[in-house]
Each structure stands twice: as C-alpha cells, then as structure tokens.
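Try it yourself: sequence plus zinc ion, in.
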Amino acid sequence: MPLDSEQIEKQILRFQDELFDRGLRLTKQREQVFRIVLGAEGHLSAEDLHRQVREQNRSIGFATVYRTLRVLVDCGLIEVRQFGDGVQRYESAAGDHHDHMICVACGEVFEFEDDEIERLQIKAAESRGFEIVSHRLDIYIRRCDSPKCGPLSKRRLNHR
Ligand SMILES: [Zn+2]
Ligand SMILES: [Zn+2]
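Structure, out:
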C-alpha cells in the first residue's frame, strides 16, 4: 500500500540511521532503490526494481539493487514476500498491516485486511499461552468472475 510523502521521508531518514549504525552511507543509488519500493503499488521482484531504477539511473547494476534490498530487509524496513511461484518480492514494512490473496491461475495478488481474522489469530495464540510476534497469511484463490481464472470445470466447458 503506497505511503504518503511525509511517511516516505521518515522512512528515508530511518534508512540513513540504520545504514550509519552499520558503517554505511545513504548513497544516491541506495536511496533511489528504497524510494521505488516505498512508492510502489504492489510487490516488486529484484528484477522489477532494477528495471524501474534504471529509468532514473542507467548506471545502476543488478548487484547494487540486490545488495540494497538485503540491507533493507536486514534493517526491517522492507519485507520479503513469497507467493508460491519461487520469486521473491519486496514491499515496505511501514503502513498498515495487511494480508494477501493470490490467484493460482494468473498470479495476481490482492491485499486485504480483516479485523475478525486478526482477532482470531490472536485468540488462537493466546489460548495456547503464546504471544504473536508477527504473522503472515497468504490465501491462494481462484477468481470465479474472471474468464481466464474461473473454476477449472467451467473453463474446460468454455474451451470445448
Ligand atoms: Zn493479518
Ligand atoms: Zn502487500
């Protein structure tokens, strides 16, 4: 979910602090990579990010993008997502918590928030004497209303 410009600037400052703690500097390239993640609508792979950052800076290499992503994950500023296709995707860790539904037919990812599901997860952990540190909920779906993603049986009929 995209952040507003004030939130984005706060995140850049946090990145600068985290880099400083690691003896690193906020270079133009590191900043460019992070700004693309912060401004993204969805979930980007390292290749997607490299393509986008190259539109601003032709000289940035894939290795730089990838190393920057590792540092950002290490700092807790971005999170890695795995949606079952073996590709790692990244999104900002700031902003409201959300979970994901992933279409098994086309791979499209939908973000959602459901207070009742969140409450039930806390209840399930607490009833076992645990406290939730974090959670990730990915629900694999097939869109029933989409001609290319609808139920298998219907798709077979359509192709006959
Ligand atoms: Zn959740
Ligand atoms: Zn997401």
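One thing you can check immediately is this: Residues 97, 99, 118, 135, 137 surround zinc ion (ligand 1) (CB under 6 Å).
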